[in-house]
Amino acid sequence: MTEPVPEAPRRGLKRKTKLILLGVLLAPIALFVLYTWSALAWDFSDGERAGILQKFSEKGWICKTYEGELAMTSVPGVMPVLWAFSVRDDEVAQQLRDAIGKHIAVHYTEHKGIPTTCFGETSYFVDSVTVR
Questions:
Q1: Exposed end of the chain (fewer CB within 10 Å): N or C?
Q2: How many CB atoms lie within 10 A of CB 51?
């Protein structure tokens, strides 16, 4: 009589377990991407501001962004209020570079809750500029 041969232990994970682990790893990434997309797609507010373009530069080590400062004053001789903004469009950035030191009006949208500064350091994104 022969003795039954013991079964070799199963190696690796079952397919169902692999899918669950993959879902646990990918779900946070998918939620982060969805949240970031929605924060950039819908604006909290939009409006216009006018003033003298005081500073405009491209910043960042890895994520290069365009950042600027508009000096706004309602009465000459009074200390201006500085308004910081970001630009995502290269064409608008070039228009702003050409307008440094000039009086301009900009249209902007405000996007609250953006989780990273790779899109801009501020929540205000300028999308058009008019030199006055």
A1: N
A2: 19
